[in-house]
């Protein structure tokens, strides 16, 4: 396991985390059966260092313990974190992978919020080894993608058992129903119904926000952000839309990631101001590894959005 990030040692919790990690991994590599010293003996107490390492803090452990008591199948007991090397994007001149050879493939573009939904779902369910990521460069899409993979020519799409599934919301539901890993759908009928309602609302939500960019964004998108805030008050057994982390959170977070930075940088507006549940929700989703691994440089979102929505 290699660290991809440079660690600023001026930030002591990161330095502490890095020190401990380096030692744990070095020690675990040279560890023998007769000398199983390191991992079990290392205690990491700093909350920030534990978060950085993807370990639960004591508070989080408590919360999970209580969730276990109330809901043994709780989806917040996410699959173990897997760091993977993400593949380079294929472009017009790239050869296709050996299509329909029995391999399951998820076609995405790193910048795309729709594709990111499917990518998070795959990661959360721990399917990194069974579903290959194929990244496509949208501005220079290979012709074979439209001709041989997905005639709609959009991402995401999923190649599975000789067929292609498209449309991000269908893909995430398909992944959740047809693959192993922690469930991202509630069992409770009331929550199930609410989940469908919320998933259906993503379209209205995103379209309202996107069209507000042409007018007065803060005023015109205010009601839909308020609606999300109210919605987050509905279940109090966790910070997520249905209490526990689910497909609903995945359906929304990729757009919030972009909207938050765009409003902040362009209109100096904090979309979470006066919306405490929304602020908490964003904070909690940002602790989920399956999501963290799909995030790209916020400046890239900013540039994409500026070019798309502010160019004269
Ligand atoms: N409704 C589709 C939208 C997918 C979509 O628009 N993806 C964009 C990238 S973010 C795309 O592939 N655009 C290429 C195109 O429209 O030609 C979904 O949810 O999957």
From TrEMBL:
What InterPro entries does this protein's entry cite? Answer: Glutathione-S-Trfase_C_sf, Glutathione_S-Trfase, Glutathione_S-Trfase_N, GSTL1/2/3, Thioredoxin-like_sf
Alphabetical list of PROSITE patterns matching this protein: GST_NTER (PS50404)
Q: What class of enzyme is it?
A: transferase
UniProt keywords, alphabetically = Detoxification
Enzyme Commission no: 2.5.1.18
Q: Which Gene3D superfamilies match?
A: 1.20.1050.10, Glutaredoxin
Protein family membership: Belongs to the GST superfamily. Lambda family.
This protein is called: glutathione transferase
Protein species of origin: Juglans regia (English walnut)
The organism that produces this protein has a lineage beginning with: Eukaryota, Viridiplantae, Streptophyta, Embryophyta, Tracheophyta
């Amino acid at each position: 396991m290699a660290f991809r990030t440079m660690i600023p040692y001026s930030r002591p919790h990161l330095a502490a985390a890095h020190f401990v990690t380096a030692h744990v991994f070095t020690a675990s590599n040279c560890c023998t059966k007769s000398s199983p010293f390191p991992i079990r003996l290392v205690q990491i107490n700093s909350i920030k260092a534990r978060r950085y390492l993807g370990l639960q803090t004591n508070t989080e452990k408590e919360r999970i313990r209580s969730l276990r008591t109330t809901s043994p199948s709780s989806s917040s007991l996410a699959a173990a974190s897997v760091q993977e090397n993400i593949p380079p994007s294929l472009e017009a001149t790239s050869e296709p992978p050996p299509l329909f050879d029995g391999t399951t493939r998820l076609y995405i573009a790193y910048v795309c919020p729709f594709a990111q939904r499917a990518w998070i779902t795959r990661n959360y369910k721990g399917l990194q080894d069974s579903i290959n990521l194929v990244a496509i460069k949208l501005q220079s899409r290979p012709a074979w993608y439209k001709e041989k993979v997905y005639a709609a020519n959009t991402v995401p799409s999923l190649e599975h058992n000789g067929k292609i599934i498209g449309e991000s919301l269908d893909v995430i539901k398909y992944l959740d129903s047809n693959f192993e890993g922690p469930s991202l759908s509630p069992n409770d009928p009331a929550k199930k119904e609410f989940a469908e309602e919320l998933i259906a609302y993503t379209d209205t939500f995103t379209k309202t926000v996107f069209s507000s960019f042409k007018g007065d964004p803060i005023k015109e998108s205010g009601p839909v952000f308020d609606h999300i805030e109210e919605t987050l008050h509905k279940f109090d057994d966790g910070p997520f839309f249905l209490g526990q982390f689910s497909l609903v959170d995945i359906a929304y977070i990729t757009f919030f990631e972009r909207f938050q930075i765009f409003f902040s940088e362009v209109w100096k507006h904090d979309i979470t101001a006066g919306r405490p549940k929304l602020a908490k929700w964003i904070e909690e989703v940002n602790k989920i590894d399956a999501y963290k691994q799909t995030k790209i440089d916020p400046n890239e979102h900013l540039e994409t959005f500026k070019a798309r929505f502010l160019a004269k």
